[in-house]
Amino acid sequence: MNSELPPRFAPLPVRLRPCLGESTNSYIRRLARANHLQPSFLHCYLCGPPQWFGRPLLEHLATTAGHSPEALERALADAHSLGGTNRPRRRLPSRNPFARRQDLANRIVQEALKGTQIRTLAKRHNLRCSDIRFALEIPRLTATESGQLGDLITGGLADLIESMISRGLNGRQIWTDLMDHHDYLVTYHSIRHYIRYTRLRTASARVGNPEAQTGAPAASP
User: Fold this and answer.
1) Are 91 and 130 in contact (CB under 8 A)?
2) Would you kindly state where each structural domain of the chain is located, as residue ranges?
3) E strand or H helix at 210, and its extent?
4) pLDDT at residue 196, as a whole number
5) Cα 80 from chain centroid?
6) Cα 131 to Cα 126: distance, rounded to the nearest angstrom
7) Contact (CB, 8 A) for 153 and 126
8) CA distances in angstroms from 50 to 38, 43, 46, 120, 138, listed in the order given
9) Amino acid 202: pLDDT
């Protein structure tokens, strides 16, 4: 009698090829929907305890998707941040190389999604491969003179999260709702950071600046 347990991870019935420059969360979402699963469920299943809302091991995702880890590492822009064995982390620029060229970053993303390889993009635009990776991995680039990246959660996404907070949802519930029912791609860590720090700083800034609340200049003494 064979007492061995079946492997925890096995290929899903429907297999999808990852797009070059696609994020891990985007690929997991497409893979889950193609197999009639909730994206949040598949993501948590791939991560496992205790880091249910973290990042899955590259090998686990590869097994479930039916592709080799090498294929996913070449395609997924943020594959370097996934757990794995003996895989060095990619080094990205400390400053935003597209601070004043966001149109170029957007063009690179569109060309990558059409199947253009990273080395080809680097030669075509006279950039380093690390710069191309940067454009693919960071979808929201700011155009500040300092070249620093802005907060990921801004604009419509911030408004949506605020509405969820007003309904009493916690960070995990917000992440699950965004993963399953919306098109935003944001990590649980980013949501938690926004709830604990970013929105508090924004509220403090509004309290200290009456003009931001009323929209009119404060009365002079």
Assistant:
1) yes
2) 24-81, 95-149, 155-205
3) helix 210-214
4) 87
5) 13
6) 10
7) no
8) 20, 13, 11, 40, 27
9) 67
Are 18 and 27 in contact by the 8 Å Cβ rule? The answer is: yes
Contact 112, 20 (CB under 8 A): yes
65: Cα separation from own chain's centroid? 19
Cβ proximity of 37 and 13 under 8 Å: no
Which residues of the chain fall short of a pLDDT of 70?
Answer: 1-7, 80-94, 113-115, 137-152, 202-221
Query: What is the identity of the amino acid at 185?
Result: L
The residue length of the chain stands at 221
Structure confidence at residue 83 (pLDDT):
56
- Burial level of 151, CB count in 10 A (0-12/13-18/19+)? middle
Note the pLDDT of residue 33: 95
pTM over 0.85: no
CA distances from 11 to 3, 15, 71, 164 (A): 22, 8, 15, 35
Q: What pLDDT, on a 0 to 100 scale, did the predictor assign at position 80?
A: 66
> Can you give the pLDDT at residue 211?
54
